[in-house]
Amino acid sequence: MRYDGETVATVTDLSDIVPASLGDMVVDDLGRAYIGTQAREGGVIVRVDPDETVTVVAGDLDFPNGMVITPDGTLMVAESVGRRLTAFAIGANGSLSERRIFADGFDGPPDGICLDTEGGVWVSMTLAHQFDRIVEGGTVTDRINIGDRTAIACTLGGPERRTLFMLSSTTAYPQRLVDTRLSRLDATIVDIPGAGLP
């Protein structure tokens, strides 16, 4: 969808291309949107170019969820069912290649993610009720426990991009939250600022 400040219009309909509902999205500096599909297995990432051309750029993913693009041109995706972060090199034409595991074996399914300037990734560990900062290989360097709440998404923002905004709720299932006000946004200052897109 596209919102111009007044109206919402359909950019493209992906229902005949993707195997499940759409999930998270990240947009690169050239306006290419990478969109994940919430298939428990056989998930794909679709790229929608500014001219509305649609291309499936990655497949065989286990519930692709949160995504970031690093300053060096790597797309990282959280595979929730796979409990891992997977990285791809982004080609000049927007293709994804050189697939590799950045980290795996997580305590819970990863959801929303964000990147910092030292290559660490803050990960919303949905059913583990925590936000973890993870470096390549899987080492957890920082952990924020949120009690019995469900970690949904996070981002680094604020004036120096050192404010970690953490979205949580009472469940990971959106249909259970219809007509409720049970989600919450918390914030804390971290040492290492944010990087990359978004």
What is the topology?
Elements: E1 2-3, E2 8-9, E3 22-27, E4 33-37, E5 43-48, E6 54-61, E7 64-69, E8 74-79, E9 84-90, E10 96-104, E11 110-116, E12 121-125, E13 130-134, E14 140-145, E15 150-157, E16 163-169, E17 184-189, E18 194-195
Antiparallel strand pairs: 1-2, 3-4, 4-5, 5-6, 7-8, 8-9, 9-10, 11-12, 11-18, 12-13, 13-14, 15-16, 16-17
Structural class: mainly beta
Question: What's the domain count?
Answer: 1
Number of helices: 0
Helical amount among residues, as a percent range? under 10%
CATH homologous superfamily heading:
TolB, C-terminal domain
The strands making up the biggest β-sheet line up spatially as 14-13-12-11-18
Query: Major β-sheet, in short?
Result: 5 strands, antiparallel
- Which second-level CATH architecture applies? 6 Propeller
The number of strands is 18
How much of the residues is beta strand, in percent?
over 45%
Report the span from N to C terminus: 18 Å
